[in-house]
Design brief:
The protein is an alpha+beta fold and 84 residues long. 37% of the residues lie in helices and 20% in strands. A three-stranded antiparallel sheet has the order 1-3-2. α1 crosses α3. The longest helix is centred in the middle third of the chain and has 13 residues. It is globular, with a radius of gyration of 13 Å.
């Protein structure tokens, strides 16, 4: 298997992160909801964790609701003192 280029990795992670990133500023806390089917189609917890950690250096939390919705939260880039 060929190694993923940096550009390909960045594009893949950006696509996932953009689905949950704060719309005011990407460095703000993450607090987003989406349909479970969409969440799973994008790669589920593994994909969103990888993307959020990559862009914000914070670990997300996931809450699944019986209505078929997933809530994704993370402290965000601005919460990491060494990154400000």
């Amino acid at each position: 298997m060929a190694k993923e280029t940096y550009e390909a990795m960045q594009a893949r992670l950006t696509k996932v992160f953009d689905m949950v990133a704060n719309k005011t500023h990407w460095k703000n806390p993450v607090d987003a909801t989406m349909e479970t089917a969409t969440f799973e189609a994008m790669g589920g917890e593994a994909a969103f964790t990888e993307a959020i950690v990559h862009f914000t250096a914070t670990v997300p939390k996931f809450k699944r609701y019986p209505e078929g919705v997933v809530r994704v939260t993370a402290a965000g880039y601005y919460s990491v003192p060494s990154l400000q």
